Structures are given as structure tokens and as C-alpha cells.
Write the C-alpha cells for this entry.
Amino acid sequence: MSLNKWIKEWYDLYEAELDEMMHDIWAHPETGLKNGYAAKRAAEFAKTHGFPDAMLMRAGQGIKPSDNPNTVFATYGEGKPVIAIVGELDALPGLGQSDSPYKDEIEGAGHGCGHNLIAGSCMGAACALRYAMEKEGVKGTLKLVEAPGEEVGRGKSLLAFDGMWSDCDACIMWHPGSAEFNTEPQHGLCMMGVNFEFHGKTAHATRPWAGRSSLDAVQLMNMGAEFLREHVTKDCIYHYQITNGGMAPNIVPDFASVKYFLRSASTETTKDLLRRVVLCAQGAAMQTETELDYGVIFLIPYFYTNDTLSKKLYEASLKVPDIEYTEEEIQWAKDLYKNYFGAENAPEDPEDLLPSAKKTYEGLMKELTATDASDMSYFCPTAHVHGGGEIKGLPGHHWTVTACSGTQVGMKGAVRAGKVLAQGALDLFGDEETIAKMWEEFHSLDIPAYEDVYSAPMKPEEF
């Protein structure tokens, strides 16, 4: 088995240009839903490489051109099947970092989750696949979608309500990771972001009895949530951040706010977890005689994986060569490893440092994930492959990932992943038997209607 010759030829011709695009997006990081530069840069590349009608649109405002874009959408071909290759464009706040192997912060956002690489894997895969489809006369429809807000949990959901995934037969994408490349599906946690605001009455600290402290309410709510941990199931995870705690220590604050992230193994459990955390907030408001406002700011529903599609991508991955890193890249990775761990030495075996091989397919993994790729899984068979493009053992959402994402260490991972996505999609076109099996598995899961999942109290608000 070997990589399709046309996919290989496209990468041989244009990989350097693809790397330039990934690095340019890395050098201009933008946070969720504010991806104007990245979207325009990606659309420019798409138009140059086979998608002349690539559209700049804004998620949540319909599939139409926008003067304030954050998303790229393009198609090639016609008819069934419809396969979407999906990327991401957004960076993380506060993770600006140079491409040095030591901590070298740059003020502002940074690609600490490698979404510039995801953008490149999608773009390369779609352009190479379009090239092969044209050369071989392959029938079907290819969708290229660069999505805008995974880190805020809204991008693919907004696109879902735009109708982006409604006609798809498969949605596929890749995410970098600090382990070997693999196509095995992971358990997808349901995740929700919620803002809580308390409104009280200000007073000077010399007359505190005249005030009603909103910060007291936040602290009481958080204490209640801490005691709640003992009484929820083990799959429930939650975290909080005080986003406003007042202006000065000697002023009783009339406004304070806290943001919660709630996670569990099912949508229903997350709904109940929300109910119980809201009770903590309401109790705190009652105790402090403050007023409470709260609203869901994003929802990542349960991810319905598709074993048939994931196995098909695994078969495609066997046709793609493993990554070959240069001695300079390996040394860079060793330097970063030593700087992060404070170790005298890094692993000598490159595979223990920069995994380049592919993991054997063994089925559903025990690892947990939460990604808005789950939103696509309510409409069609969906696969979210992962691994490569990072140094083994290092954490996500970290300056080390930002550094990797700006170098060939990361970009080689994206190129390999793009070849797998392109080959997998090409193998699906015309494979009616596998597509039918994918849909049979999809319908066996008893997936709820998307609108029901997003009904109150789960529906995100502008809050």
C-alpha cells in the first residue's frame, strides 16, 4: 500500500507554501471567533490551490460572504458522498511564545494548542484531495471548512446552526498531540462554560454594614461548589475562575463574577451538574442579599464516535510514510525537553521524544477529550484523529506547544496528518459499502436531535 501518487505530487510541489501559511497564521495569533487574519490568509491559499470560489464567512450568520469573516468555506465536485475536511484557526489568550526551545514569552495570544497546524492539515488535505479528484475523475463533493472558535466551544456549533454539516456523509479532522499518531476515537466529555454575575451594594470598608458584597457571594458559591464535589459522580469535573473581584480591598464591591467550566460523560449529567451549581449560586445570593445573573456561554455536547470511519482512516494512514526529523530538529526538541523538565538529558531514542510512528488500531481509547468537533457528530459519521506535531510528555495549552507549532517539528506532523486525511477521504469516495456501514453504525447510536441538546438551559447565550 502506498500514498496516492497525485496526493504525493501535490505535497511535493506545494508543501513549502503550506508551511509558510501555517507559520504566518502562527505569527498572527487570534483568539476564538476573532480570526479575521487567519481566515483571509487561509482563503488566499485555497483560492491559489484549486478553490477559486473559497468563501470568507462568519460563523453563526449563515453560509454567505461576510465583511467581518472568521471562517473559510469551499467546495469541489458535486453529488454524493459529501465529505468535509475540517480545520481550526483560533489561538489561546496569554500563550504568546517565540519558536525558541526555552520559555520566551511574547505578549498576547499564542497557538498553544497548535490550531495553525490544524488549519494546515485541513488545507493541505483538501487541496491535495481536490488535485487527485480532478486527475482521476472522482465523483462526489469535497468540503473544506476552516472553523473559528474551538477554544471557546462555539465555532462548529455556530456552523451547525448555519447548516454546514447537514448534508455531510463524513466529517474528518486532526489535532496534534504529544503521543504517536493514531485514528482511535476517544471518549468525548460533554463540557459547558457558564458565567455567574452577582450584583450587590457598594460601601466603604469603614461602613461595611451599609454594603452587600458581591465578592462574598462569589466566595460562598465557590465554597458550596467545593462541598458539592463529594456528592457528584466520578465523571463530573469542574473548575472556576473569579473574573471580577472588585476594585480595591477597602471597598465593598457591588459587582463580582466567576466563570465555571463543567464536564461530565453525558449531556444529561452535565445538565444536572449545572442545576446543582446554580443552586450553590442562588444560595450564595440569598445569604448575601445580592442579585444573581447567570448564563451558558458555550456547550460542547457528548461526542458520538464512529468506529467504521476511524478504521478507514487507520487503513489510509498505513499508506503514508512516518515522519523523518532532521538531527537539528531532534536537537531542538531535546533542548526544549530539558528546559521544560529541568533535566540534564533528554531521551536518546527519537521515538521517545518526537513520536513519528503510527499507533495500531485497537478501538475506543480510555483517554478523555472535549472538543467542538462533537457538534459535527450529531449530523454524520465523524472522526477526530490525533497525535504528532508535539514533543512526547509535554502538556497541552502551554508555551511548549506554541513553540513547537512555529517550527518544522509541528508542521511535519500537520503534513503527515493532512496526507492521511486526503488519502482516507479519497478511499471513501466510491466506497459505497463502507459509507453504508458508517451510517448504519451512526443510526444505531440513538443520537438525540441537535436542537434538543441545545434547548434550555443548555443553549448558549450572549452573556
User: Anything to note?
Assistant: The first strand starts at residue 55 and ends at 57.
